[in-house]
Amino acid sequence: MKLYIKYMLSTRCKMAVKEELKKLGLHFILVDLGEVEIMENISPEQSEQLKIALLNSGFELMDDKKAILIERIKTIIIEMVHHTDDELKVNFSDFLSEKLNHNYTYLANLFSEVQGTTIQQFIISHKVERIKELIMYEELNLTEISYKMNYSSVAHLSNQFKKVTGLSPSHFMQLKDKRRKPIEEIGN
Fold first, then answer.
1. How far is CA 39 from the centre of its chain?
2. Helix (H, G, I), strand (E, B) or coil at 16
3. pLDDT tens profile 149-159
4. Domains in the chain and their CATH numbers?
5. Percent of the chain having pLDDT more than 70?
6. Cα separation of 52 and 54, whole Å?
7. SS3 29
8. Cα dihedral across residues 38, 41, 46, 50: positive or negative
9. Cα distance between residue 62 and residue 51, in whole Å
10. Contact present, 39 and 21 (Cβ < 8 Å)
């Protein structure tokens, strides 16, 4: 039986959900971001217990088909942008359509209607957050980051970054360097 869980966005979340399932004596086949497959069919009482346990842990058991689809869209995007080390060399619209077995226009319209933003804006927001993270790590330069995040050029990345944050990536880097001072430098 497949269950869909809202706010399950990291490995730590998966561990927390596994714990809740074990406490309730439910056997899982798969626990992935946003979805769980359990061996047994659960009774309405077990479903209610699971719902309460998940709520107490900051999650939400979903049963509305449209809400489930929206969460699956978000989860796929978050997984692609934040949790993969591969370059993002995919066409998101084709990828989402294929992964969710729905026409992209339907997915885009549903997402916009429910979320009040487009899938594209959601992707851009997450890409910019990931770029911030990569800048903070200082392991890659902007050219490498733009390649990794599937931008056609550093200029394209910079323009989109500035549009979202109000800062150029280089200005963001400077702020990052000034964000914290060593204790011995404070007040000098």
1. 27
2. helix
3. 989 999 999 99
4. 1-63 (3.30.70.100), 120-179 (1.10.10.60)
5. 90
6. 5
7. strand
8. positive
9. 9
10. no
Q: Which residues of 37-50 are buried (b: 16+ CB within 10 A; e: fewer)?
A: ebeeeeeeeeeebb
Q: Which amino acid is at 153?
A: S
- Measured between alpha carbons, how far is 137 from 182 in angstroms, rounded to an integer? 18
For the sheet containing 28-32, what is the strand order?
Answer: 28-32, 35-38, 2-6, 60-62
Cβ pair 54, 20 in contact under 8 A: yes
Query: Rounded CA gap, 150 and 144, in Å?
Result: 10
Lowest mean pLDDT among 32-41, 82-91, 159-168: 82-91
* CA-wise closest residue to 61 among 46, 50, 75: 50
Contacts of 85 (CB under 8 A, 6+ apart): none
Rg (CA), the chain: 20
Give me the mean pLDDT over the 46-70 stretch: 91
Indicate the pLDDT class of residue 177, thresholds 50, 70 and 90.
low
User: Angle at the Cα of 85 (from 79 to 88), degrees rounded to 5?
Assistant: 70
Of 127 and 188, which is predicted with more confidence?
A: 127
pLDDT at 55 over 80: yes
